[in-house]
Amino acid sequence: MSGQQALPSWQVAAVSAVLGLAVAAGAVTAAGPWDSGQRTAERARAAAQDREGGERHGDGAGSGGADGARASAVLAALGMPARAAGDAPAPTSRGLADALDPLLRDPALGKLRTAAVVDAVTGRLVYGSRAGTPAVPASTVKIATAVAALDALGPDHRLETEVVTGPEDGEIVLVGGGDPTLTREAPGEEPGDPASLPQLADRTARALKERAAGDAGNDDGRNGDGGGGEDGSDGGNDTKDRAKDRAKGDAGKDRKGDGEDGDSGDGGAKNGGKRAAAPKVELAYDTSRYSGPARHPIGPNENIAPVSALMTDEGRLDDSDRGPAPRAEDPAREAAEAFAGLLRDRGVDVTGKPRHAKAPRGADRLAAVASPPVSALVERSLTNSDNDIAEALARETAVASGEPASFAGAGRAVRDRLARLGVPVKGAGFTDGSGLDRHGAVSAELLAQLLVRSADPERPELRPVLTGLPVAGFSGTLRSRYADASAGTGMVRAKTGTLTGVNTLAGTVVDADGRLLAFAFMTNGSTDAKGAQAALDRMASAVANCGCR
């Protein structure tokens, strides 16, 4: 801290896990437990100085543990005040102005400089400099996207990718459900691991073989009533019902793999001592959940894939899981072709190439897999500044709000959701969910008030917005922004935003008196990106380290 010896790393990690969240505030503690999978992983990474941030996200983000109950003990161990934020004195406008006005005059900042600091306990704007003036937000707009998605979908909602029957016999359709994290890797063992395309192929192959076995049994004449043979395989409607029930139960519950699902060595299912012929199907794929242009307005770019309801690994063509990477031109087709190959590996005869088609209404579901919960997707989007997840969350907000799932429809849906929350949306425009588009505009006060809403004990569903914020010097996009001895290391939790000429920072701190504050600092027109970033970091550190009274 300023004027003090730097805290040891374990103490900084403890502070970042406790002070950096609204659990330090008495009002927020009342909202419930905070120990999400993201925070558990984050504390482990911080303590070990792991270089990665936000890679894995637990199944129950925002819904486990009880860090609020431990806040006093941790603060006391650090020799810091342990009173609730509601009892801690609030900073004054004059005190904050004395601390921030000189920093806001830094020549590295662009012509447009805006700032807002809001008391999270009262919701009062305690410091503002052009706080209501819209500015290009860059990636800090992901805060708005996250709040809108959690409000529209809920933190426990999952995005399902399914396989259904086609309009004709022998046709199946792979239906995209908007999950950009669906992976070509084998299923993981953790509840928050992404849905697995190989696991979906396992389940689909099993369902197809059981149907083939049922059909063979009916042709044999031994099961004319559609009942099961001695091997337990069902025929007729029983097979359809069982496949649908299993798909519904499997999606998102069993994340470790299906055991016999992957066993396709005989190329077909047994029936009464005979082997049914290998299932033969034509594969189509359905991306109709989303509409409008798939290509982001910035054009082809390694920071984002074309937005599609069906893709694997965010359309990445390498083995990366974050950051810039070569992207598929048509992520849906790539995913469908990969799925066809996986089915063939499992003894299913897939004829021809996958074609683009819409699944029929009322089609039978054969199999499904589900994404991690929206809470975990929000955390990953914020920690890693994941553009593909942000765009998916924006479009899913549109779907839930009755808007077209396009860039324009998502923008309207996000703005409407935020307006319902009572935050200042005047002048705000949402042209994408990720902040890559330079035509978007939000105010510093809007961003700060969204963070205050996320700390509201009456809105626990928004808590993943706070738990997903990177920790200064430790995780995500803030890991390298603060030196080890920086006054803000471990104390500032914030979302970064960077485009050419645009630098923004919005997050939360607990000040020296123990008061929880939300802030947003924005500059447009800078010609010194590193200098502007450093200036914003100094402003956040100043808020964290002064009582400002």
TrEMBL record:
Annotated GO MF terms: serine-type D-Ala-D-Ala carboxypeptidase activity
Region (Disordered): 32-67, 167-282
Signal peptide (from-to): 1-30
Keywords for the protein's UniProt record, in alphabetical order: Carboxypeptidase, Hydrolase, Protease, Signal
Entries under Pfam families matching the protein: Peptidase_S13 (PF02113)
Ranges of Basic and acidic residues composition bias in the record: 40-59, 203-223, 237-259
Keyword Hydrolase appears in the UniProt entry: yes
InterPro entries to which the protein is assigned, alphabetical: Beta-lactam/transpept-like, Peptidase_S13
Enzyme Commission number(s) from the entry: 3.4.16.4
Family stated for the protein in its record: Belongs to the peptidase S13 family.
UniProt protein name: D-alanyl-D-alanine carboxypeptidase/D-alanyl-D-alanine-endopeptidase
Organism: Streptomyces lycii
Lineage of the species this protein comes from: Bacteria, Bacillati, Actinomycetota, Actinomycetes, Kitasatosporales
